[in-house]
Design goal:
This protein is an all-alpha fold. Helix content is about 75%, strand content about 0%.
Length: about 140
């Protein structure tokens, strides 16, 4: 099976599937071990998001973007983007599950999809964007 070209959205989705499975597994684990109800599923979301972000940096760096940018740029840039995504997605998750009383797993899927697209745009345009470092001719 041939993978889509590096940097494309379809390549991102392929890689994100691996990250999603890890993220979902961590979230389910924290839902299981933390108290039930109220804001606790959002806490589970937040913990899984933070842990999954580091994994996602490396999978997207290697598999999605095949980035040659130095990790002294990509790690802080990715983590900055993931932090924005963490705050925004946690707020959305809380609103969906607590304020609107929607099913936690339905909100998990919808929220992951929305923030996954936003994350792709940020990673492509900021963290892993190739830059020309050759001297001017």
């Amino acid at each position: 099976m041939e993978l889509p070209e590096h940097g494309t959205f379809s390549r991102y989705v392929t890689t994100a599937t691996v990250n999603f499975v890890a993220f979902y597994g961590m979230w389910e684990l924290f839902v299981l071990i933390l108290p039930e109800g109220s804001y606790w599923p959002t806490v589970s979301w937040s913990i899984a998001w933070l842990l999954g972000s580091y994994l996602a940096h490396w999978t997207h760096r290697i598999w999605t973007f095949d980035s040659g940018r130095d990790i002294s740029w990509t790690i802080p840039a990715s983590m900055g983007l993931y932090t924005i995504g963490w705050v925004g997605s946690s707020a959305c998750y809380y609103v969906g599950t607590v304020s609107w009383s929607m099913d936690v797993r339905l909100v998990f899927i919808a929220n992951s999809s929305l923030w996954g697209v936003l994350n792709y745009l940020g990673q492509r345009e900021i963290a892993f964007k190739e830059v020309n470092t050759s001297p001017l001719s």
